[in-house]
Amino acid sequence: MEVRLFLNTRFPTLRPDDLATRARSLMRDTGVRIIPVVEDERIQGTVGRVEVLGVTETRSNLLVKDIMVPPVITVSPEDDVVSAVSRMLSIDEWYAPVSEAGRYLGILGLEDVIRAYLGRNPRAEARRVEEIMTRDVKTATLDDPIGKIWADMMRHRYAGIPILDRKGRLVGIVTQIDLIRRRLTRAELESPRSGPQVRRVMNTSPITLPPTATVGEAARLMLDRDIGRVLIAEGQKLLGIVDREDVARALLGLER
């Protein structure tokens, strides 16, 4: 199937000369993970949550062109979607601008591919999530400063970090969108000691599945709740994490 069948044209767009704070507001209000930067119908770059996390002051003269990054991958509407997704995942990208003859058309996102492929591969959907989950998960503690989480997200592009208490029990999660919506100042985020602790900003109701849940269940949960990852746990014991990449690989037969 061609990429054009999965094209998402509903993403908001920015112009290079828009204020960077507009990018933050759009992301905070819509929850999108990437915003294309378009001028004269041509893709100029993209702004993701990591770029927005670097713009936290209310008063800022930064423009979108100061924070946008070049698209690391673009795809054509005629491209085979499995091949396109394989290319995206090989460079750890969940979204790719779609263009034709230089004209921006929309975005190819993993969620749209997952939605379309549900029901097409019953055997893959029936697999247990413990077969595809990542077991070595980066975590933080309740007493960590939020600046530590922010620094890890900026440095390693972590989209979400589970939070454990002193007994190693899963008690919450902090995601990139949590930080964006909390309206924290850059001084608070960068402060290694005086900034707010994780316990003040974390989501105390992390979405989890047991290791015996199926890939299909994980996929539907991600789509229904518009989340990028599901924590795999038994009670409060964190076992691993499954994200959209894991699910897309399973449904499309793209093993690591």
Structure description:
34% of the residues lie in helices and 21% in strands. A three-stranded mixed sheet has the order 5-6-7. The chain folds into two domains: 3-112, Roll (CBS-domain), CATH 3.10.580; 125-252, CBS-domain (Roll). By secondary structure, it is α/β, with parallel strands linked by helices.
Shape: flat
Main sheet? 3 strands, mixed
How many helices? The count is 12
Let me know the CATH homologous superfamily of the largest domain. Answer: CBS-domain
Radius of gyration: 19 Å
CATH topology name of the largest domain: CBS-domain
Helix content: 25-40%
Annotation, overall tally of beta strands: 10
Strand content: 15-25%
> How would you name the oligomeric state of the polypeptide chains in this document?
single chain
CATH architecture of the largest domain: Roll
- Low-confidence stretches are none
Distance between the termini: 22 Å
Please tell me the total number of domains.
2
* Level-1 CATH class name of the largest domain: Alpha Beta
Structural class: alpha/beta
The strands making up the biggest β-sheet line up spatially as: 5-6-7
Following the backbone from N to C, one meets helices and strands in this order, namely HEEHHHEEHHEHEEHHHEHEEH
Q: Look at the structure and give the mean pLDDT.
A: 92
Keywords summarizing the entry:
CBS-domain; 3-stranded mixed β-sheet; 2 domains; 256 residues; alpha/beta; 10 strands; 34% helix
Describe the SSE topology.
Layout (H helix, E strand, L loop, with lengths): L19 H11 L3 E6 L2 E7 H5 L10 H4 L13 H10 L4 E6 L2 E7 H8 L4 H4 L14 E2 L4 H11 L3 E5 L5 E6 H6 L4 H5 L7 H4 L6 E2 L5 H11 L3 E6 L2 E7 H9 L4
Parallel strand pairs: 5-6, 8-9
Antiparallel strand pairs: 1-2, 3-4, 6-7, 9-10
Helix pairs in contact: 4-12, 5-12, 11-12
